[in-house]
Amino acid sequence: MFTLPRTLEILLFAFCNFAPYVIMSYYVFRQYQRFHKWITIAGCMFLFLIQFVTRYWSAMMGINTSVIMSIIRLIIFISGYAILFDRKFGKVLFIELIYANLGNFILVAAVCIERNLFPGIAHHLYCWHSSVVMILLHLVITIPWGLEVRRYFVPMLRNPLIGNEWYYYWIVPSVFYIIWQYQINGGTRTGLENIQDPNNVIFLFIINFGALLIYYIMLKLDGQLAKNLELEEQQHYRDLEYVGYQSLKERIDETRRMRHDLRHHIHMLGYYLEKKEYDKLEEYVRAYGNSIPDVDHVRFCENHIVNNILLFFATQAKKHAIDFQVQVAISQDMPVDEHDISVLLGNLLENAVDACVTQENEKRRIVVKGDGDSHSLVFTIDNTFENIIKKNKNGELLTTKPTGNGIGVNSAKKIVERYNGFFSADAKGELFCVSFMLNL
Q1: How many domains does the chain have?
Q2: Has residue 38 been placed in a domain?
Q3: 355 near 365, Cβ under 8 Å?
Q4: Angle of helix 4-29 relative to helix 128-137, nearest 10 degrees?
Q5: Are strands 422-428 and 431-439 parallel, antiparallel or unpaired?
Q6: How many whole angstroms separate alpha carbon 137 and alpha carbon 110?
Q7: In this predicted structure, what is the pLDDT of residue 148?
Q8: Which residues of the chain have pLDDT under 50?
Q9: What is the separation of C-alpha 65 from the centre of its chain, rounded to a whole number of angstroms?
Q10: Looking at the chain, which terminus has fewer C-beta neighbours within 10 angstroms, N or C?
Q11: What is the DSSP code (8-state) at residue 303?
Q12: Range 330-362 burial, b when 16+ CB lie within 10 A, else e
């Protein structure tokens, strides 16, 4: 029967084994809490209680039950974090398996050091000597490793351009978890005998170091992918601005030429009137009217960036006989980043034009409405379509293009999130409707 000192000893061990990782997990997912902060903290305390109870049970029953308890704890912890934090299950599974592998290594290393350095005083599982050694290992290994997590892992977890990879990333740390379990609990010797063998601890250190190297390579590749996607977005923005500017410049130059030639036209009008050649006058006026370009669509709004983007896609729509209707009221001094609004509108309008181009129905239409003030910016983009709307398991839209990764909607969502705004995209009858609001 366990005494109070023995209970406190196991409690200290459970705290040293669990607290650093629940703190790191909370830090990684803290922005995505499903519930109030104190409810989340209470949930983490409940998970710690489970950690203590299972450790207590293992100490009472012996080391042979540690495998079952370890798996039970892992399943409960992953499920608990998936409930507490609103993140993809693959992300939660990936992070918690990494923490489980690191935590298991720290635990094994602490027990091994305790049993080999203090063989005369280490008589029980989860002794206070192990807790002291574990604290030292946390200072040397866990804290530096946690700083690396903050540097590399957190940006990857928050990057919306990296999505489907999480469906299989968790497999990597799960393989290392299986290797760890087999190394400690496999073979003819007991788990405690394997833990006391320094060779096993060295092997597990090499395995964990190799795992961290693989994670680092994965993160570097994903980071490069994200940078490439951002460069594509920036290039897309520059192309839109340049094409819109060139189109507007050409029309302005054309208008200037017409003004320069206006005095010649006035001279001809006066000549026909003086000669009373009214038929020729009418013909000349009609020809002159037809030579004047349609400038109604040159200026959609006061904001030159938005106007250039709308002008560019209006030209694209005209090429494909798409009815392009615009009703926007955006001032030049709208407090929104020019790059953000260019990428946002550019991607969504490009998707709308592409959807209309693939239509066999001649009634192709795009309707753009927008309004804003110093506090918010609202846009709706509705277009006709014929393709089937595809969504993944999380209800997110998938691209219908035969090639490409369909980053347009993801880029739009990312920008809207930065402004704490609202984004919606779904089919309504024959129209595909996209709307967003930015809080400025």
Answers
A1: 2
A2: yes
A3: no
A4: 20
A5: antiparallel
A6: 7
A7: 75
A8: 64-65, 295-297, 402-406
A9: 40
A10: N
A11: -
A12: beeebebeeebbbbbbbbbbbbbbbbbeebeee
